[in-house]
Structure formats: structure tokens, C-alpha cells
Specification:
43 strands; globular; 28% helix; eight-stranded parallel β-sheet; alpha+beta; 828 residues; 5 domains
């Protein structure tokens, strides 16, 4: 017998009226004083008000205030079940009374009371009616047709009363959904239900809205921020004002398991990554692994095999766990932390990888990974600091030593010799953080906290080698097979939102090119906006720079312009102001330009520049150079601007679109388009200016979106009209803008025209460091099949939904008329 069964049995013997009155209230979630009085008078008319007072303070009540009481859920359930078994007719009367009294009660109360009754008399409640009520509550919690405060209140009531209903009655999907939605609305975690993952995801999506999240790439990892930090790249994820959930994974990781991050509003999260990579003598990658966080220590051995009994690499994680890895990077074991996270330090592996040792609480601990193995101390290959040089590394089996100096010199000298015996073998462009010497003594490797591995020959007849890395290297060691193990931080990062959208963030590890073009403007898309479109455009994902043409010639003449400019800059949107110099006296031009630059706009776009002299345009350029990172956009190629129009390319694209119905002319136009792209962007990365890709007004309205998508696939600075970006069916175009914003390959990468087996599809390969994207555009009015040829181990990942096509030497991609598809090329 349960506690409440025994309690009610005892009370029935001594105070039966109290128990009977409690039973009359057992179908109500909440009982106020008026309801209690009417229930007593209806079902126990011969009793006095004293029975109400006794019940109010009885152990059957969970909580009671000045105006209402709540029966204990277990006691109420026992009373309902007993009434259904012994007095079903009375229970039906109680149900009718409760429904009448609560006809104007909150929707949540009525729903849960219907559930209570359905558990006792399934035939007495319409199932569809319960589902309809649940759907109405779900819409209310989601904020559909209700204010934010009203939706919050609805969510609180849902959770407040949920525990008063037996779990068996809450198992239906609609009831589960409203509980999950309420938790999501209020920033709480829903109950665990692995078998209901899909329903949970749908319910949470009902409450979520698309929110901007800032991604700042640092040398050691990324920083996620809400609201986005100034200058951060933007991604858009579903979430609530309380939190946004993201799955984050280092692209160089040895595992496909991401890290789930929860980013609260008003906070930022720093996530570093530790990377270990082994490079062969030819510079090829032979092994890569990555761990989130900053590893406290790393050790490597000459064991390059796989399987238990030995390890190639040992990583001491921030929490004190030691992770062991095979020669291929796969994890083969862990030594769990058994104390505070700082209890362990200094990890070492034996040369054959069969034993790991570490310090724990200051004492040496040695562990054999294979029975019967013998510990062989490994030779030190890390950088050793000294007074004479910035650092040194001994040769493994000789009497010579390599040293690095603060000025970048690398020298080799006999171990017992003096400084006069040192011989300079090379010069590096940074302060060395680590040196290593190959086992054959022919090479010295150096890294210096950037993305370059330099190999300097010790003897004559060899040339220095350099390998560009995808992360920031801080440590290097040599292996017996001639390979190098490089350790560092950062690298590319993959982020996935709860709706399945994927983002690939690549750090810009290359030094800025020596060019006059403002670094922020490279590859940026300018969206033309009038003053009425600004508010709508600033909220769209991917819109990061607006080209605004104010009514007045000066900022003070444009009403409210300064306030709008401040709001846009605060939201991370840059502003280029378009001004028309036609009819303006030459002596006034510089004054107008200076006034706008003083307003802290990010750039100026000039129209009617052909009427100005070359000398005056040069003066404008020199004036802008006196301000930091100001962009100048000309409407023609005169005067050495930052952005000059690629009018011939846009004209050829327009011709191709207009001739789609003429087979012969269309094929010729597509050939001209490919040729124009190849010639114009042959040296785009080294050019002193950017090509402006202005969408021509001559492009037919039906093909403007297709033309815009084509321009977004190319290098340079596309200029798109705001009405095109805002049109109702422009969600695909908005996604293209967002992808371009977050991929360095699309903004800064080179451009190679690719043959995909059909003249109807324009295919260009965009590459920047390890970020490689293939952009396909079916310009024709008929479906086409693009045949993509890659290495057999390369896979195509759809940039829109992150789905991955199987690896194959030839992959056929179906392209509907006007289709645009972008693929990341994933290499093992």
C-alpha cells in the first residue's frame, strides 16, 4: 500500500467528509475558494464550512495560499481511481461540474483537466479535441499571434501544471511537444527522451527564431559571440533569446563527433583547438588529429603502426586525461584523469611508443602499453632555450647543434665548438618557436607560431623547402622515417546549426597582400538600397555592406542619415555612400568627399566620373588614402580606383541569358563567357584593384536572380539591387550571400573555369588555402547533367544543406533549368 493510500484510508475512518470533498476536487488542477465552496454545497450540502478549512490544512493538499489550493498529485490520482472503481456515476457528475466551473479557465488548465478525465473515461473525451487544444497551446507558446510576454506566461503554465498530470497521460506526441516548446521558450532543458528526438527537434523549432551569431577566427581557434562582435563573420542559427545551440568540430579532427555548444545571449565562447599533423618528406599529410581545447602537453614516438600495445602520439587534455593515438591518427586508448585537472604534467613516450610516462603530483608515473616491453628513453627534439641563442636543437646522433637567433638566423655548429665555428644555414622571417633535426642530419625544420613549416638543408646540393599548413604551428619533431610531426593550434572549423545548415570557417593564415585595396572589401558584395529598404536589408543573412544613395549631397542634408549610419555600423553592416558628382564644380568636389569621409562612412561610390579630370580623380584618391580603409568605387576604369566595373564580362553574361532560346547563339555566348572569366580573373588575387560586377539593368527581369547567382560565384565585388535581394522568392539568393560571406574561397580565392561535360553549365573552381568550392550554374532553359571529375577519394559536400555525395572519380550532378549548386571539395 502506498503512502497516500494508507493516509486516505486512515482519514476515511476519522474524517470521511474531508476525504469525500477532496475526491470532488480531484479532477481540477487548481481549486480556488469559490470553486471549493460550490463543490461542497453541490456534493456535500449537509456539511459545514469547517470541512473546507480542515481540507485546506490537511496532508492531502500539496500547497495552499490565501486564494487557492493544490491537491497533492498522487493523492488526487488515488482519489480519482477509487471513485472510478466504486462510484463511476458520481465521478461523471464531478467531471460535468468541473468542466462547467472551468469553462473560462486558461486553455492549459482545460487541456490538462480533459487529459485527467480521458485517463478514467476514454470514451468521454474526444481525442481530436485534445489534440486541437494542444495545437492551440503550441502555437501560443511559439508566439504565433501572441506577444512575447504572453507566450512566456503560457510556457510557465504548461510546465507548472505538467507534473500534476500522470506521466502515462503525457505520452502522446502533442503533449510532449508543448512541454518541449515551453522548456525551449523559457531556456530550460526538456526531459530526456532519446526515442522522441525527431519530435523534440520539431517542437523546439516551433519556438526558435533565426538569430545572428558572430564567428571570430583566431590563430588558436574561434570565438562565438551573441550579439556578433564587431568585425566578426556572421552565421544565422535557430535559437531563442536564452540560448543558441551549435555543433562545432575541427575540420582537422580525427573523429566526426562534434562538440555541442550552448551560447547564451550577451556572452561569447572561446573554443581553441590543438592540432597534431605528420608530414612526409614530400610535404604530403600522412596523419592529422585535433582535440578541442589547449592541450597541456604532447609527446610523439617513432611508432607509426596501429593497434593496441603502442602509441604514436599522446595528448594531455586540459582535464588531465591522456589520449593515445595510432600512427594514422585514430584513438587507441585513454588514461582517464584520477585527480584535479592540474595534477598531471609533462607527458613522454618511449621511442618505440610502448610506454608512456608523466608527472602526477610531481612524481614520475610510467605505464607499459604492451606486456613485456622495455622503456627506451626518447631523444629530446624540442626547442631548448639558451643564453647564446633564441633556442637550439641537438642532432640525434652527432656532436653538432642547430641554433635559432632572434633575428631569424639558423646556424649549425659543433657541440663543443665556439661561436666562430657556427655556420648559418638559413634565415627565417619570424622568431623561431621550435627547431627539429631529421634523423639523417640533412635537414633542420623550423616553425614560428604561424602557418609555415620551413626545412633548411644542412649540407650543399639541397634547396630549402616550405610547406603551408592549415593551422598555426608552434612545435615540430622528427620521425625516423623522415617525416615531421608538427603541433599547433586553430585550423578550419565546421559549424552546424540545429536546422542542419553547415558553415565551414577557414582562418586567414596568409599575410595581407601589399595592395591599396582595403582588406575588408576584398570580395564583398555591395547591395544597393534606398532609404526605405535599409531596415529590411540589414536583417537579411549575408548582407554585410550597403550601397546607399542619400537624397542630399551631404550627410546633414539627408534627414536621419547619421543615426541610421550609426545603427548599421553597430549591427556589423558597412556603408558605402553613392554620390553623383555631375554638375558639381571641380573646386567643390574635394570638399564634398571630405565631408562624407569625416562622417566615418566605409567608402564612396562615384557616378558621372567621366566628366571629371584625371588630376581631380587622383586628388580624390589621395584624399581617401588619408583615412583608414576607405573604399572608392568608380563607374568606369579611369583613375586607379579600388573597384572598377568589369563591363565587358557583365555584358557577355547578359548576352548569354538573352540568347538562351537560340541554340547556336547560346553555345557561342557561353564560350565567350568562359573565355571572359578566364582572362579577366587570371591574376585576380594579385591585382591592385577589384573588378566590380554590376548587375546590368538590361538583364531580363525573369533572369535577374540567375544573373546575380552567377556573379556571386565569381571573384570581385558584385553589386546587386536591393529590390532583387528583398523579393519574396529570394531566399535562395540570400543563402548564396551568406555562404559567400563565410567562405574565404568565394571572397578571396582564385577562379578556374572547369569543363563539366556540357556547354549549358558554367563551372568555376574557387580555391583559397584549403577551402575549395566548385560553383555550378545551369544558365540554360533545359535540364543538364554536369559531370564532375575529381580524385577518387574526394567527396562533394553540398554547401547549402551539408549533404555529402559518395566519393567517385566521376560524379554526375543533375542541374534543373537555372539551378545553382555550390559544392565543397573534401579531401581525406
Amino acid at each position: 500500500m502506498t503512502y497516500y493510500a494508507a493516509l486516505i484510508t486512515e482519514l476515511t475512518e476519522h474524517r470521511p467528509d474531508v476525504v469525500e470533498l477532496a475526491g470532488c476536487l480531484s479532477l481540477a488542477l487548481s481549486v480556488d475558494r469559490a470553486f471549493l465552496r460550490r463543490a461542497r454545497l453541490r456534493f456535500l450540502p449537509r456539511t459545514t464550512a469547517g470541512v473546507e478549512a480542515e481540507l485546506w490544512f490537511s496532508p492531502l493538499v500539496e500547497t495552499a495560499g490565501r486564494q487557492a489550493l493544490l491537491l497533492d498529485p498522487e493523492a488526487a490520482e488515488y482519489l480519482r481511481v477509487e471513485l472510478a472503481r466504486q462510484k463511476p456515476e458520481l465521478l461523471r457528475e464531478i467531471r460535468a461540474f468541473t468542466a462547467t466551473e472551468h469553462v473560462h479557465a486558461p486553455l492549459v488548465v482545460r487541456l490538462y483537466e480533459d487529459l485527467l478525465w480521458s485517463g478514467l473515461d476514454p470514451a468521454g473525451v474526444e481525442e481530436a479535441g485534445i489534440d486541437r487544444q494542444a495545437e492551440r497551446i503550441l502555437r501560443a507558446v511559439s508566439g504565433q499571434g501572441a506577444s512575447a510576454s504572453a507566450a512566456d506566461d503560457m510556457g510557465r503554465w504548461v510546465l507548472h501544471y505538467a507534473h500534476r498530470v500522470p506521466d502515462r497521460l503525457l505520452r502522446r506526441d502533442t503533449l510532449w511537444s508543448i512541454q518541449v516548446a515551453a522548456c525551449e521558450r523559457l531556456g530550460l532543458e526538456p526531459p530526456e527522451a532519446p526515442l522522441r528526438a525527431e519530435i523534440t527537434a520539431r517542437a523546439r523549432a516551433c519556438v526558435q527564431e533565426v538569430l545572428p551569431v558572430g564567428v571570430t577566427v583566431r590563430s588558436d581557434g574561434i570565438v562565438l559571440s551573441r550579439p556578433p562582435a564587431p568585425g566578426a563573420r556572421l552565421l544565422h542559427a535557430g535559437g531563442t533569446r536564452h540560448k543558441v545551440r551549435l555543433d562545432v568540430r575541427g575540420a582537422l579532427s580525427h573523429t566526426n563527433e562534434p562538440i555541442r555548444l550552448e551560447l547564451p545571449a550577451g556572452q561569447s565562447v572561446h573554443l581553441p583547438f590543438t592540432v597534431v599533423q605528420r608530414l612526409g618528406p614530400d610535404g604530403g599529410v600522412r596523419m592529422t588529429l585535433s582535440h578541442p581545447g589547449t592541450a597541456r602537453d604532447i609527446a610523439v614516438s617513432d611508432h607509426l603502426g596501429s593497434g593496441p600495445g603502442a602509441a604514436h602520439c599522446a595528448v594531455l587534455l586540459p582535464d588531465g586525461t591522456i589520449v593515445l593515438h595510432d600512427g594514422d591518427g585514430a584513438e587507441n586508448g585513454r588514461i582517464p584523469a584520477d585527480g584535479p585537472q592540474d595534477a598531471r604534467s609533462r607527458v613522454l613516450l618511449s621511442a618505440d611508443g610502448s610506454e608512456v610516462s608523466y608527472l602526477q603530483y610531481g612524481e614520475d608515473v610510467e605505464r607499459l602499453l604492451a606486456p613485456g616491453s622495455r622503456y627506451i628513453p626518447a631523444l629530446p627534439r624540442e626547442l631548448q632555450h639558451s643564453d647564446q641563442a633564441d633556442g637550439s636543437a641537438p642532432f640525434p646522433a652527432s656532436a653538432r647543434i642547430a641554433q635559432a637567433y632572434t633575428d631569424g638566423r639558423i646556424t649549425v655548429a659543433p657541440r663543443e665548438g665556439g661561436s666562430s665555428d657556427a655556420r648559418v644555414i638559413g634565415q627565417v622571417p619570424w622568431r623561431v618557436s621550435c627547431l627539429a633535426v631529421s634523423d639523417d642530419e640533412r635537414w633542420v625544420a623550423a616553425v614560428g607560431n604561424d602557418s609555415l613549416l620551413l626545412e633548411l638543408p644542412v649540407g650543399p646540393g639541397l634547396r630549402p623547402r616550405e610547406t603551408r599548413l592549415a593551422f598555426c604551428a608552434t612545435w615540430v619533431s622528427a620521425c625516423s622515417d623522415g617525416s615531421w610531426v608538427v603541433v599547433g593550434h586553430g585550423g578550419p572549423v565546421e559549424l552546424h546549426t540545429e536546422d542542419g545548415s553547415g558553415y565551414h570557417v577557414v582562418p586567414d593564415l596568409e599575410r595581407a597582400a601589399d595592395t591599396a585595396v582595403p582588406a575588408w572589401s576584398v570580395g564583398r558584395v555591395l547591395v544597393e538600397a534606398d532609404e526605405q529598404q535599409v531596415r529590411a536589408l540589414r536583417r537579411l543573412p549575408g548582407v554585410e555592406c550597403l550601397l546607399i544613395r542619400p537624397r542630399g549631397m551631404l550627410a546633414e542634408e539627408a534627414e536621419g542619415f547619421t543615426d541610421r549610419l550609426t545603427a548599421l555600423r553597430r549591427g556589423g553592416v558597412r556603408v558605402v555612400v553613392g554620390i553623383d558628382l555631375a554638375g558639381l564644380a571641380e573646386e567643390d568636389v574635394l570638399g564634398v568627399v571630405r565631408r562624407w569621409l569625416d562622417e566615418d562612412v566605409d567608402g564612396l561610390a562615384f557616378a558621372a566620373g567621366a566628366e571629371l579630370t584625371e588630376v581631380l580623380l587622383d586628388d580624390v584618391r589621395h584624399l581617401a588614402d588619408g583615412y583608414d580603409d576607405r573604399l572608392l568605387v568608380w563607374d568606369h576604369e579611369h583613375g586607379g580606383p579600388h573597384v572598377a566595373p568589369a563591363a565587358s564580362l557583365v555584358s557577355v553574361l547578359g548576352f548569354a541569358l538573352r540568347s538562351r532560346t537560340v541554340p547556336g547563339a547560346f553555345d557561342e555566348a557561353m564560350a565567350q563567357l568562359r573565355s571572359a572569366i578566364a582572362s579577366i580573373f587570371a591574376n585576380a588575387e594579385a591585382a591592385a584593384f577589384q573588378w566590380g560586377l554590376v548587375l546590368s539593368p538590361a538583364v531580363p527581369a525573369a533572369q535577374r536572380s540567375l544573373a546575380a547567382a552567377t556573379l556571386l560565384s565569381l571573384p570581385g565585388c558584385p553589386v546587386l539591387p536591393g529590390d532583387l535581394v528583398l523579393q519574396e522568392n529570394a531566399h535562395r539568393l540570400s543563402r548564396l550571400l551568406e555562404l559567400r560571406r563565410n567562405h574565404l574561397a568565394l571572397r578571396r580565392g582564385g577562379c578556374d573555369v572547369v569543363d563539366v561535360g556540357t556547354p549549358n553549365v558554367l563551372a568555376v573552381l574557387r580555391r583559397y588555402q584549403d577551402d575549395v568550392l566548385l560553383c555550378l550554374v545551369n544558365v540554360a532553359q533545359t535540364p543538364a547533367q554536369a559531370v564532375v571529375r575529381t580524385a577518387e577519394t574526394t567527396r562533394l559536400q553540398d554547401a547549402f544543406d551539408s549533404s555529402i555525395l559518395p566519393a567517385a572519380h566521376e560524379t554526375t550532378v543533375l542541374m534543373y533549368p537555372g539551378a545553382v549548386r555550390w559544392f565543397r571539395l573534401l579531401t581525406p
